[in-house]
Amino acid sequence: MKRSDITHLNCSVARALDVVGEWWSLLIIRNVAYGQHRFTDIAESLGVARNVLTDRLRTLVEADVLRRVPDPDDGRAARYELTDKGQELVPLLLMLMQWGDRWESPDGAPLNVVDSSGEVVDLALVSRRTGEEVDLATMRLRPGPGFRHEARGG
Asked: For residue 60, what is the enclosing H or E element?
């Protein structure tokens, strides 16, 4: 079943979800970020149907989240790598993982993010300008350069 098109919304979240909002897409990006680059390895790890994986990989390549490159170990095969655009999704996945660890993993985290010393990292949203943690309780949104007021209604 084809999902509804939400690209008409003047919303960066809606536009991002149009690219990566399908759950297999985020799992594929996760696996590539974790070092799985071959189609067969991703398919086996996720247990996803080959036609679904083919479709999701094509969408992610077309969106410039992944790039398909020749596999240096097998000239007949291809590898998938994160582009710069795809690498910028990794912090989002790590935050989503941390949320899942807290709220959806009663037996504890399946994986931990650790720093170079091996200590578990507790991720937070930090301002690049100030280096300080963003207080979500006092954070506000305001119109940006792409804002346009749209009539709401039926």
From this structure: helix 50-62
pLDDT in tens, 45-58: 999 999 999 999 99
Work out the average pLDDT over 123-129: 93
Q: Are 31 and 46 in contact (CB under 8 A)?
A: yes
DSSP, collapsed to helix, strand or coil, labels residue 10 as coil
pLDDT in tens, 80-91: 999 999 999 999
DSSP string, 97-116: HHHHHHHH-TT--SS--B-T
Q: What is the pLDDT of residue 70?
A: 94
**For residue 2, pLDDT beyond 60:** no
Q: Residues 136, 128: contact at Cβ < 8 Å?
A: no
CB neighbour burial string for 41-77, b if at least 16 within 10 angstroms, e if fewer = ebbeebebeeeebeebbebbbeeebbeeeeeeeeeee
